[in-house]
Amino acid sequence: MQHTDSTWRDARTRTRDTLDRLARERDIWVSTAHPDYGPHQVPLWFWWDGEAVWMCTAERTVTARNARAEPRVRLALPDTADVVLLHGDAQCHGAHDVPRQAGDGFAAKFGWDPRREESPHVYLRVRPTKVLAWRGEPEHRGRVVLRAGEWLGL
């Protein structure tokens, strides 16, 4: 989604727009870091359950390894004109241990069910503790829409 409107939005509108994007978008950038090897960033498909972002990756990826070693992650929706950044801790769930609702929700959204793959996969669940959202310079002030796990403006 490419958004070019840089009109200032109040906290309620900005929060509502952010929640709408989380519900409908497909891709999210995942940034992890390993204590010895440093940062790593990849795009993954995601499903938003209303509280947390669920992503899936093969068990042996750098992303999975990093999330286990250092669970603090950053996520970003892929539009620099309509920025949404999420901070949180990743919880890893094996494909056979993922809650049914999350596995079913992810599979329904993408038409692909990692639980049925021969190679092992890991679901990453990130419940945001902080979310920032802005469209251009006018919205730099007040860009925090979620703080300490609480949505602002709702």
Automatic annotation (TrEMBL):
Record has Lyase as a keyword: no
MF (Gene Ontology): coenzyme F420 binding; oxidoreductase activity, acting on the CH-CH group of donors
Domain Pyridoxamine 5'-phosphate oxidase N-terminal: 22-134
GO cellular component, one term: cytosol
Keyword Acyltransferase: no
Pfam families reported for this sequence: PNPOx_N
Keywords assigned: Oxidoreductase
Family matches, as PANTHER family: HEME OXYGENASE HI_0854-RELATED
Protein name per Swiss-Prot or TrEMBL: Pyridoxamine 5'-phosphate oxidase
Source organism: Streptomyces silvensis
Lineage, highest ranks first: Bacteria, Bacillati, Actinomycetota, Actinomycetes, Kitasatosporales
